[in-house]
Amino acid sequence: MRGRRRALAAVSLITIATLAASVGVMASPSARPDAARVLPALAKIDLADRAALFADLLLDGEASFLIILDQQADLRAASSLPDKAAKGRFVFDALRAVAAATQPGPIDALRATGATLRPFIIVNAIGARGNFDALFTAAAFQHTAYIVADTPIQARLPSPHEPLHPSSLILQPSSVEWGVNDVNAPAVWSIGYTGTGIVVGGQDTGVRWNHNALKSQYRGWNGTSADHNANWHDSIHFAAGNPCGTDSPIPCDDNGHGTHTIGTIVGDDGAGNQIGVAPGAEWIACRNMDRRSGTPATYLECFEWFLAPYPITGTIADGDPARAPHIINNSWSCPDFEGCLSGQELISGVQAMRTAGILTIVSAGNQGSRCSTVNDPPALYAQSFSAGAYDSGGGIAAFSSRGPVLRDGSGRLKPNIAAPGVNVRSATRTFTNSYGSLSGTSMAAPHVAGAAALLWDAAPYLIGEVDLTEWVLRLSARPTYQAQNCGSDTPSSHPNNVWGWGKVNALAAVSATLSLTPTAALTYTIISGDAIILDASASSDPESPTADLLVRWDFRNDGAWDTPWSLGKALTASLATIGPAVAVQVADLGGRTDRAQIVVVVLNLDKRLFLPFVVQQEP
After folding, report:
1. Domain boundaries, the chain
2. What average pLDDT does this structure show over 39-43?
């Protein structure tokens, strides 16, 4: 298929349209393209996707594509909710409501063409496999924003750069692995935190669930029997010759990559193979690739399932956001030849995770040592916490992708952080007691996911507070410098576009949460009249005078936080909106959140009042 598509891609769009209209004899009469429908449809089909879609349709009679609708859910109100459970339920309900209001019409029309459909809520979209009639029906629907191809052309997983070690090493215990030691995980275990109570989701090639280092940590295993409902999902529905088949009802790994990454997060067989950063955490998993090859639909399906896991034979209508993981690891990328042509195809899924209070860890990519090689989703997104890779000598890996991000014009710094990613030993799918070493940013991201699990075990008040958690991980990382000078970097830049904020340090992150007595002086400037201006900003922390603070505000003092975490907030509103009192939460490096209240005093017009006060830590 790849060669046929490449040949067709060289044909001009006019030729493609003419060809589509003239070779209808290749398809059944109901699937025959109508020239009058071809040209209008092109406006809805991504320019770079047209050749691939027409290639499949002309040569196979049908194609897979994703229809993105123009109305998407507004999830912003979730940021003011008090905890992860409330955020997850709000996001789930809001997404379902928009899908229910907008999808029935196009679904009915597409089914009439004989297309096979899979609706989504994580992004308001419909996955379809059908003929020309189905494609043109989708394009003609007035609420279709755009259409992308959804058939993989080739695999481009952030691939390991080192082969598995030979079979002679398969059974050799290695005690605590170098990467686990390097992020200081054993020191965190020694003070009582191993990730207990935290659930990590692995979105990858699957998992060998009964591996000795993974079985006890699987949420679906109770010590006697397994229940895979809401603990495992397979998004691969069409695949010829896959060793796991399709719609596998039990966890299965068709490549080995997913078993290896989960092992680095939680793995420990109790017999000397301490391969995981957070061995006390539990895991669940979703297979999003067919032998290392995914599509926007398979990736989005896993995001959706993680938002509200549902039973093996269920649908998202049976989903339960209370079963969602706390953290998900994503050691993969979606390049243009898998259908992520604009780079924005997955952003709604990643944003939904974040808004629901789920921390999304992503490998930065293995595109080499040039600057601005963090190009593919989801690593390029601001909503993803992306990890670069380094070796046991402390040097950045040659393959580790660098920033700044140019693809979307943002110039944002990437990666966010760095972690061990060269010759990392972990579980493999071959046997229940097999291990091997791999290299890649795929191996770095699980170290960060494990460190986050340790942090949330130690500081449960951070659970669901994604912005604040990332902030703690960044500021507790070991600063690391470079001489490559990507973007505006200089040799003294921290953070920078090679290392991000530096090497992840689980002990420093956890330690910062253990002995805090944060105080902060804040000043409100209030101008009376019809409108009040509150200009609030955090100033100093006596515990760490040079450290930044994060703050957020409750301008009604009703317990609902009005804004995300920030360094300051200026609000202009009416007296009725402000209410009689204001509350503030303050966090320092450790993330401890504290509440204080100040009464708003309304003065005469044009008078100004400065109100300094101290935030005292709650018991």
Report:
1. 2-149, 172-303+310-511, 521-614
2. 73
Write the CB contacts of 275 (distance below 8 Å, at least 6 apart in sequence).
174, 177, 180, 213, 263, 264, 267, 268, 425, 426, 427, 435
- Helix (H) or strand (E) segment spanning residue 614: strand 613-614
Distance CA 316, CA 321 (A): 10
Q: Which of 442, 476, 511, 528 is catalytic?
A: 442
Q: How many CA atoms lie within 13 A of 374 on its CB side?
A: 36
Catalytic residue check, 539: no
What pLDDT sits at residue 152?
64
Kindly tell me the burial class for residue 102, based on how many C-beta atoms sit within 10 Å of its own C-beta (0-12, 13-18, 19 or more). middle
Residue 467: active-site member: no
Q: Residue 558: pLDDT above 70? A: no
* CA dist., res. 283 & res. 449, Å (int): 11
Residue with tokens 């349209």: 17
Superfamily, domain 172-303+310-511: Peptidase S8/S53 domain (3.40.50.200)
CA 354 to chain centre: 8
CA–CA distance, 613 with 27 (Å, rounded to integer):
75
Say what percent of the chain tops pLDDT 70: 73
Tokens of 341: 């042509």
Is 204 tagged catalytic? yes
Per annotation, catalytic residue among 161, 211, 233, 257: 257
Question: What's the CATH number for 521-614?
Answer: 2.60.40
- The model's confidence at residue 79, banded by pLDDT at 50, 70 and 90, is confident
The pLDDT score that the predictor gives to residue 541 is 44
CB-CB contact of 575 with 479 (8 Å): no
Per-residue confidence (pLDDT) for residue 1, from 0 to 100: 38
Mean pLDDT along residues 221-233 = 98
State the catalytic residue, choosing from 49, 133, 150, 204.
204
Rounded to an integer, what is the distance from CA 164 to the centroid of its chain?
Answer: 27
Sign of CA dihedral 570, 474, 322, 233: positive
Listed in sequence order, the DSSP H helices in 141-293 are 178-182, 185-190, 257-266
Strands 594-599 and 424-427: unpaired
Q: Compute the C-alpha angle 508/509/514, nearest 5°.
A: 90
Least confident range from 36-45, 48-57, 192-201: namely 36-45
CA angle 196, 201, 203 (to 5 degrees): 160
In a 3-state reduction of DSSP, which class is residue 378?
Answer: coil
Quote the pLDDT of residue 275.
Answer: 98
